[in-house]
Amino acid sequence: METFPLESLSVEEAMKQQFKLVDIITKHFTGEEFLSAGDLGVVKGLNKPRYTQKTEKILAEFFGSEKALLVRGAGTGALRYSFISFLKPGDELLVHDAPLYPTTKVSLQSMGIHPVYVNFNDEKAMARVLRENPNIKGALIQRARQKINDCYNFGEVINLLKSLNPALTIVTDENYTAMKTKHVGIQYGADLVTFSLFKLLGPEGIGLILGSADLLTKIEKFNYSGGSQVQGHEAMEALRGLVYAPVMLAIQAEVNEEIVQQLNAGKVTGVAKAYLANAQSKVVLVELTEPIADRVLYYANKLGAAPHPIGAESKYEIVPMFYRVSSTFLQANPELGKKMIRINPMRSGANTVLRILSTAIEKAFTEQKLSGENRSWGKE
To answer: Less CB within 10 Å around the terminal CB: N or C of the chain?
Structure first.
């Protein structure tokens, strides 16, 4: 098996991102303003809190976008509003020939949008499908891998689709990749970029949309009511999280690489192979020598590893996460669930992950051996 992980920011590059964001903050907030929690309500003339608007201007400048908009519903909400801005029931949307992320699938189904599937790893196939389907209105490109063997270059896919059909509205789903990679989709020509700020140390339920001022102004009008507005304190919390996210994520990427190296050097008995993959977050995929994945996960939880995500790298996720392979990967290859697990070190070091994994595998093997002995005894 071969994986094609995305290139992460180095710690030095991440530091520059942090410094850049803080510098931009000082140009929009006074020192006293930034020390406050943020305002509330629908301000006359803005129809949103002042601090929310200030934060959106900061994020637009930081990401190099025409406009930025904070929305409710996290990454799913950001994607849904993006679809609403240019699609109507019955329209066709180009998507990768892979299992759609479950909440994205629900959004498209509920809107009556027809997905047209094509392999983004195949340039000729993309050209053919667009030629055969002239009514396609837009494309959704997920930056994190949807299948283990995905190898397409994000920027090249955007550029190719735009060259084939300049009128195509391209939306990128950059959950799990924003602030980890050097650029976002608008730098490659995408019209809208979406991701969750909960995954970047921000508050629950807040998403961000970047891109076309015309489309984002339409989305802003959809969210006219006061209850739809992201409040000032939520915007400030999201902004504070983004300041810390790039360096934290760069350190996490280094730990991931160290874990893969150690496992493939034979550090832990019972591991056949380890892979670095964007599945959905950038994680370590661990292939076990025996089909004991469920028992390894059981014991890892007992040993202090998180058994499931909260927001996938949210502010609450500190201890390493030992989890099943992602649902989209499993749909493509169900057998992975028996002998493979994924590990995200979160804020831990490699030694913690290796200790928990080694002990969990040892306990699972012991359980398997005892179970086999009991079955043999019963037959006698």
So the answer is: C
State the pTM of this model: 0.90
The Cβ of residue 156 has, within 10 Å, a number of other Cβ atoms equal to: 12
CA 100, CA 90: separation in Å to the nearest integer? 18
Helices 74-86 and 213-222: crossing angle, nearest 10°? 110
The DSSP element (H or E) to which 25 belongs, if any, is helix 11-28
Give the length of the chain: 380
Output the CA torsion sign for 6, 211, 98, 202: positive
Q: In angstroms, what CA-CA distances link 145 with 41, 81, 119, 313?
A: 39, 23, 12, 17
Closest CA to 299 of 374, 375, 366, 348: 366
20: helix, coil or strand? helix
Using alpha carbons, select from 200, 206, 202 the residue that is nearest to residue 228. 206
Q: How far apart are CA 249 and CA 253, in angstroms?
A: 6
- CA 323 to chain centroid, in Å, comes to 16
pLDDT per residue as tens digits for the range 167-194: 999 999 999 899 999 999 999 999 999 9
**Helices 74-86 & 102-111, crossing angle to 10 degrees?**
30
Query: What residues are paired with 209 via a beta bridge?
Result: 69, 194
